[in-house]
Design brief:
It holds the Pfam family THUMP. GO terms for molecular function: RNA binding; rRNA (guanine-N2-)-methyltransferase activity; rRNA (guanine-N7-)-methyltransferase activity. The strands form two sheets. This protein has an eight-stranded mixed beta sheet. Strands 11-10-9-12-13-15-14 form a seven-stranded mixed beta sheet, covered by helices on one side. It is elongated, with a radius of gyration of 23 Å. α2 (about 45-55) crosses α7 and α3 (about 70-80) packs parallel to α4 (about 110-125). It contains ten helices and 15 strands. The longest helix has 20 residues, at about 110-125. It is an alpha/beta fold and about 375 residues long. Residues about 380-385 have low confidence and may be disordered.
């Protein structure tokens, strides 16, 4: 039997509850929510499963040592004292990243440098040889987290952020992060039981994440590599078994996923990414201006999108957001429409009252995920101001 150990999954602000629920469904133990992170307990196979199967996690860290720290010298001494041989060979390579919330230390790069010095000095002194630094493809990626005087040293089991799913070859001017897209769709309650639309689909991220949720496809199957594949205890047979077990839980999807974009270049990129994700059986992307479209059928429609915020695209925001409201009101009865924006002023011009508002962050921008319910027939004016 593999032994259990504590892990920490990092996520975006506002997704902690979603991630806890995902971990529960995957079978994690001792789940505890923090801010932008959720800790849990599992074995090595579960670590593989978490990396493959979690939609709202950015990284899975494996803490290996915790101590209090009072100065840079104290940090160096305590890291030097650790036994690094179970994790790293003297001929191996390492990379270190640090996050700091402390009045003792001001510079995360300096802390990463100090940590590296302690580790390589220890190897040089005890084995006569030292590991190299490799920022791109290290054998071991180490995370140093200092909160006030508490220092946690973890192994980063993911490597590159888990939002890099592996299906994207092309992006547009303001691409949405895959973890953010998946979280928005999950917060919207999308369950694959109706048609789904992203009317401003850009490079297709929202469409692909929606299809993977509907079919219960593990989000990170297409990644080229996880950091744990370079660890000394890497177990390829166990990994393949976990992969097979996740794949056996996929399900059929009997509705449509539709993407519109008015930029031909975005449409080409979206089609390309959908093909890479091998989801072209489920997703249709069309060159359309959302403001000139209508629903055209009675069945329920679930809409989630990420309209421009005016951060990188130069458009008349007031008119644009008014257009969103008018199009939904006049042309999309029987639709639950959700979108995220950081332009809180522009939101006032939609001309509809949202039935829900959820505070989130898109990168560093404080944002709102809003929901508008468009009723069929005479009820559709209910949420008009």
């Amino acid at each position: 039997m593999e032994e259990n150990f504590k892990m920490v999954a990092k996520t975006l602000f506002g997704f902690e509850e979603l991630l806890s629920k995902e971990l529960t469904q995957l079978g994690a133990q001792e789940i505890k929510s923090g801010v932008r992170n959720v800790s849990f307990v599992g074995d090595k196979g579960f670590m593989y499963k978490a990396n493959l199967g979690l939609r709202t996690a950015i990284k899975i860290l494996k803490p290996i040592h915790t101590f209090t720290v009072s100065s840079e010298k104290d940090l160096y001494d305590k890291i030097y004292k650790m036994d690094w041989s179970p994790y790293l060979k003297p001929t191996g390579s390492l990379a270190i990243d640090a996050t700091i919330h402390s009045d003792l230390f001001s510079h995360s790069l300096f802390i990463a440098q100090k940590t590296k010095d302690a580790i390589v000095d220890k190897f040089r002194d005890t084995m006569g040889q030292r590991p190299n630094v490799d920022l791109k493809f290290p054998d071991v990626k180490i995370n140093v987290h200092i909160d006030r005087r508490q220092c946690t040293i973890s192994l980063d089991s993911s490597g590159d952020s888990l939002h890099k799913r592996g299906y994207k070859t092309a992006t547009n001017i303001a691409p949405i992060n895959e973890v953010l897209a998946a979280g928005l769709i999950m917060l919207s309650g999308w369950d694959g039981q109706s048609d789904f639309m992203d009317p401003m689909c850009g490079s297709g991220t929202m469409l692909i994440e929606a299809a993977m949720i509907a079919c219960n496809i593990p989000p990170n199957l297409m990644r080229k590599e996880f950091a744990f594949e370079r660890w000394q205890d890497w177990d390829v047979e166990l990994f393949e078994k976990i992969e097979e077990s996740l794949l056996s839980k996929t399900r059929d999807f009997h509705h449509r996923i539709i993407g519109y974009d008015k930029a031909p270049s975005a449409v080409y990129k979206a089609i390309d990414n959908v093909k890479n994700a091998q989801l072209d059986d489920f997703i249709t992307v069309k060159h359309e201006d959302f403001f000139k479209t209508q629903k055209g059928y009675e069945e329920k429609l679930h809409m989630v999108f990420n309209p421009p915020y005016g951060e990188r695209l130069n458009i008349d925001m007031e008119a644009f957001y008014k257009n969103i409201g008018d199009t939904l009101k006049q042309n999309y009865p029987g639709t639950d429409a959700w979108f995220i924006t950081s332009n809180l002023d522009a939101l006032k011009h939609v001309g509809l009252r949202p039935s829900r508002k959820i505070q989130l962050f898109n990168a560093k921008l404080e944002s709102r995920l809003v929901k508008y319910v468009m009723y069929e027939g005479s009820k559709k004016g209910k949420y008009m101001k």
